[in-house]
Amino acid sequence: MLQYIIWEVNPEIFHIGSFSVRWYGLLFALGFLIGMQIMGYIFKKENKPVADTDTLLIYMVVATILGARIGHFLFYEPEVLLHHPLTVITPPFAGLASHGATIGILTGLWLYSRRKESRLTNQTFLWVTDRIVIVVALAGACIRFGNLMNSEIVGRPTDLPWAFVFMNNAEYAKIPRHPAQLYESITCFVIFLVLLWFWNRYKERTPRGSMLGIFLIWIFGLRFFYEYLKENQVPFEDKLPLNVGQILSIPAVLMGIYFVIRSYQTPVVISPQEETRKIES
């Protein structure tokens, strides 16, 4: 009987000279591209200008990468950010923090919504964030699967039958470990399906902030517990009662609870323009 899974997948799909295409980069890009197709569908169903998704994509890409990069150095390597700040925007872009990406995305969507909410499209901050978390969850599933292909962010040793031996990770090879990346990838994909169903049921009558709140509670609530199954990312975490991922997940969950409670205390108001567009469509 197989006691564990030998994982020795090549992280590179192919390379030409010094240029290589890796599974992580492909999955990262696919998360955005497929996600924007879904956002286009949502915009169309709710009678928003589909062309706005191009602008939204730019905001999302820039906000995600900058937020994730700055977050990584701020939370895990602050000395690098202090002495070599240009490292944030220079290749190979090693090190991305999901908590930083979340802050970056929320900031980017706030800036995006400021341009759109005063127009007839009425794309308020909470309207946009409630829809974007659907595709963020899908992107998260792709990115965490990319981490698995890279044999990084590995779990702690375990004797469970689905344990992975990460042969391409010299530091952790030969010891069966939790496939923590796979746990988080599945978690993200499940919440993607849940949020897509939730939106499909309510569409423009979705309580404002409810989907954002559900996303934050689900993703970072489970992230808090998954951290117990993962190796710490930096040595100083070994001395902490909770690691950085757990500490940062607590305010995210509390924020999610706030948005869920707030969403059901605030009635959804459909503007006359939206009602007219809905009837005409």
From TrEMBL:
Residue ranges of the TM segments: 23-43, 55-76, 88-112, 124-146, 182-199, 211-229, 241-261
Sites where the protein binds a 1,2-diacyl-sn-glycero-3-phospho-(1'-sn-glycerol): 144
Main localization of the protein described in the UniProt heading: membrane
Keyword Transmembrane helix part of the UniProt annotation: yes
Gene Ontology, cellular component aspect: plasma membrane
Membrane topology, record value: Multi-pass membrane protein
Alphabetical UniProt keywords: Cell membrane, Lipoprotein, Membrane, Transferase, Transmembrane, Transmembrane helix
GO biological process, one term: lipoprotein biosynthetic process
Localization annotation: Cell membrane
Record-level Gene Ontology MF annotations: phosphatidylglycerol-prolipoprotein diacylglyceryl transferase activity
Function: Catalyzes the transfer of the diacylglyceryl group from phosphatidylglycerol to the sulfhydryl group of the N-terminal cysteine of a prolipoprotein, the first step in the formation of mature lipoproteins.
Family in the record: Belongs to the Lgt family.
Name of this protein: Phosphatidylglycerol--prolipoprotein diacylglyceryl transferase
UniProt source species: Spirosoma endophyticum
